[in-house]
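Bit of a strange request maybe. I'm writing a small parser for structure token strings and I need a real example to test against, not something I typed by hand. Could someone generate the tokens for this chain?
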Amino acid sequence: MDTDQHGSFLIEARSVLIRVYPWLDFSSFGVARSHASQVAHMQITQITGEDQNMITGYGHDHVAVNGVRYTTSLILRPDGILPSWPVAEAPGLQTGDLSWVRENPPEILLLGTGVQQVFPPRAVWRELRLEPWGIEIMDTAAACRTYNLIVAEGRTVAAALIVDNRTAES
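Reply from user aminoacidic:
Good idea to test on real output. This should exercise your parser:
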């Protein structure tokens, strides 16, 4: 793309932002709202998963990582993947199931618990809170979205994702 094409794209992007987020205060960008369409430069960075694992799709019965579809539970890091994690549901989670994560502790662990947010057994939850990482428990779809955001921020993250194939049979 040459400079003119970038400039046209940026003007359109600002127009969309103004229409979609009318409450957005453009003064934090150094311009008044009335002059937002006249901003000269805006940096847009495309995030790609070429050198790291990114979630490219998900559903109740699968998670896709860099275009590869996984139909079993898995643990994912930007630099590695444990493709057949043997946890089928959060109530069955044991602290030993996260030994792969313990080998290289992340800043944060996302636990995706399937179609719904379900907390692990109380004793396991207590032990997980003592680990050297932060932990967030959410449904698998939310964990997938959150994982990509945290990777984009450049933070160390691991996502233990429960894929629930039984939902397709219900």
